[in-house]
Amino acid sequence: MSSIRTEIEKARRIVVKAGSSSLTTPQGTIDADRIDALVDVLAARRADGAEVVFVSSGAIAAGLGPLGLPGRPPELALQQAAASVGQGLLFARYTSAFARHGVTVGQVLLTADDMMRRSHHRNAQRTLGELLHLGVLPIVNENDTVATDEIRFGDNDRLAALVAHLIRADALVLLSDVDALYTGDPRLPGARRVDEVRGPADLAEVALGASGRVGTGGMVTKVEAARIAGIPVVLTNAAQAAAALAGEPVGTLFHPQNGRRMSTRNLWLAHATTGQGRVLVDDGAVEAILHRGTSLLPAGVTGVEGDFAAGDPVDVCGPDGAVAARGLVNYDAAEIPELMGRSTRWLARELGPGYEREIIHRDHLVILTSE
User: Fold this and answer.
1) Phi, psi for 122 (deg, rounded to 5)
2) Where does substrate bind (predicted)?
3) pLDDT tens for residues 159-192?
4) How many CA atoms lie within 13 A of 8 on its CB side?
């Protein structure tokens, strides 16, 4: 057994994520037998002394049958309606299944916005920590009933990786409808299983496919989740969940890629947002951001593109147009042209003390290039 597999076997705090396809029938209804089997695995690991957080998809899928919908609807309002119906059914099933093992569960519904806003982030962190302290097994899902297209995780793989950071988990297990990562569609000849991913070279031959019919995530989201998690990650199917948690050589093992974990806010900025505009900067500003960890000041700004408001995520681009960083901007797009090339001291003197602030503070700025 590899040392990384041993880390998973001995992990004291674990996040396990199951996709819709692992929990529902092809018709979109809850599969009680599959849920019971997975609950048995999670309860057993918890009985061994580990703290478990379960990230569960399936709310929308569980609501399809009761609403008479033939498949996942493209309209956001219908998805939210299905989630509203399905989330209650799904959680009731989990409550009953875990009760067989004497385990109390708590429901935690999150949006991407909760990961970005400092007060929401801290509240989510405190809530999950307190639930674990009380011996409760948290069941986390995206709050599909209120999330909008602009503030969605889009899949629970990324949510699981961010939750793992939020609770400082030791390991992450992603359960999918395939048993591992393959170089191509595993149903077709020539597809080769990838046993371990130590770095980008191991993904060179992998063709990352699109999502399935019921769920929203594909292999690309799972690889991305493993990359940002910063802890050992195993990708496999629900049938091999127990083996994966025991450190057995099943599925695909992703080795940690980051020597130091990002903050959850920076992970959200880097991997769960899209820049709402672009702030163009000179070479000096790029160098200061990348190598000295400074804030973005008005003096280094040379241009602005897009229509964004203060607080929006924007991309910071160098003279060559390449994105160097992304951050939460302190000004509306219309305000920035008057500030470009000026010192904050000059701005405070000429425009008032409210302008003596950064375009983007370094605490709300994440680097997106290895340069």
Assistant:
1) -65, -40
2) 57, 144, 156
3) 898 899 889 999 999 999 889 999 888 888 888 9
4) 30
From the annotation, which residues make up the binding site for ATP? 17, 176-177, 216-222
pLDDT in tens, 308-364: 999 889 999 999 999 999 999 999 999 999 999 988 888 888 888 878 789 999 988
Please state the residue numbers annotated as binding site.
Answer: 17, 57, 144, 156, 176-177, 216-222
Q: 């594909």: which residue's tokens?
A: 218
Q: Which residues are annotated as a binding site for substrate?
A: 57, 144, 156
Spatial CB neighbours of 42, under 8 Å, sequence gap ≥ 6: 16, 52, 54, 98, 137, 241
Neighbours of 260 (CB within 10 A): 5
What DSSP character marks residue 73?
-
Confidence at residue 115, expressed as pLDDT on a 0 to 100 scale? 67
To the question of pTM greater than 0.85 for the whole model, the response is no
Which domains does the chain possess?
3-264 (3.40.1160.10), 274-367 (2.30.130.10)
* Rounded distance between C-alpha atoms, residue 353 and residue 337, angstroms: 18
